Amino acid sequence: MNPMKVLVVEDDPDIRELLTLYFVAKGHEVAAANDGQDALRQLQRVQPDLMLLDVVLPKLDGWGVLTAVRAQSRIPVILLT
């Protein structure tokens, strides 16, 4: 099985670290973003296979990020609320 590239978008550093550690431990590559604008930059840079997306984010909320993602990609997105 090939490792997935996962983009974790979470502004709480403890939750972001926990999710990152979990996916890395399972052998996946992880990129992280702490706000909505950074998430869109990382999306272009990393081209992830999966996005874990918090709904409540600074600068651009999760719904705004999801709208922008859907305009350019069909990657699976799991919303964290």
Q: Explain this structure to me?
A:
The protein is 43% helix and 23% strand. It has three helices and four strands. A four-stranded parallel beta sheet has the order 2-1-3-4, with helices on both faces. The longest helix has 13 residues, at 13-25. The radius of gyration is 12 Å and the shape is globular. The termini are far apart. The mean pLDDT is 96.
Low-pLDDT residue spans: none
By DSSP (H or I, 4+ residues per run), the number of helices equals 3
The order of strands across the largest sheet is 2-1-3-4
Strand percentage, roughly? Answer: 15-25%
Give Rg in angstroms: 12 Å
Measured distance between first and last alpha carbons: 29 Å
| Mean pLDDT across residues | 96
Major sheet: 4 strands, parallel
Structural class: alpha/beta
Give the overall shape.
globular
The overall strand count is: 4
H-E order: EHEHEHE
User: Level of helix content?
Assistant: 40-55%
Quick structural summary:
The chain has helices at about 15-25, 35-45, 60-70; strands at about 5-10, 30-35, 50-55, 75-80.
List the main descriptive attributes of the protein structure presented here.
43% helix; 4-stranded parallel sheet; 4 strands; alpha/beta; 81 residues; single chain
Detail the topology: elements first, then pairings:
Elements: E1 5-9, H1 13-25, E2 29-33, H2 36-46, E3 50-54, H3 62-72, E4 77-80
Parallel strand pairs: 1-2, 1-3, 3-4
Helix pairs in contact: 2-3
